[in-house]
Amino acid sequence: MNSGNRTKINQLLHLTPPGVVMASNWLSRQGYSSELIRSYKNSRWLASFGNGAVTRYMDEVDYLGAVYALQHQLQSTIHPAAKTALSLLGRSHYLELNQHAVYLFGKEREALPTWFKRHDWGHEVLFFTSSFLPPGIGMTTFNHKNFSIMISGHTRAIMECLYLTPGKMNLLESYELMEGLHNPRPGQVQELLENCNSVKVKRLFLYLAEKSNHGWLKYLNIENIDLGSGKRSFAQQGVYNAKYQITVPKEIEDNESPGV
Fold it and tell me: How much is the pTM?
């Protein structure tokens, strides 16, 4: 390997933290040709990572290192979401033990690269695309190993759980998660609710927060939140709540949370 190529690989390794994927199209934009990458692989600086990506040679990469590539290299909005975000934020004691699924959300028409979809991450990857919340709001930085990515904050993550209700997630589990949402910033909750375009999510969020007896509810301006019209049902043979015009499981409606 000539000195110029050695300088370029040193620059790349300085630019990219260990433990992350490097997407081939991003490398190309940085001036690393396919021939040069092939040379680095032959010299054991880099290793192939499926079709369309590489890693450092002998590097250990988990799905968060792949999300880093999506966000930092491919400018994707795909992020750990729902129960996965809550677990990363330390709320795992509210969640089922030994989770095997990773929840990722992205905006409409986004897709996971082939190298991501075909890799065995040791978890089932559940990827959802939706525009029910705008990208960017309600997010937080998560530090992992030597890098950071954006994941859903507590409030957005619970809204993502509610978005998956009832088909992909149990409403009773969402209720348990809501009970733990003790100290969100009311301004951020207001922003998320005002910008959410899912009537289902907004009604369930306010209903469950009320059932949880959360004190921060009094700081919200409900009049600025569009709750739509008409009835919604989220449980067969459930109980109807007239205030929010929703039918929910009897176990929730009958429960009286002690609050905080």
Answer: 0.93
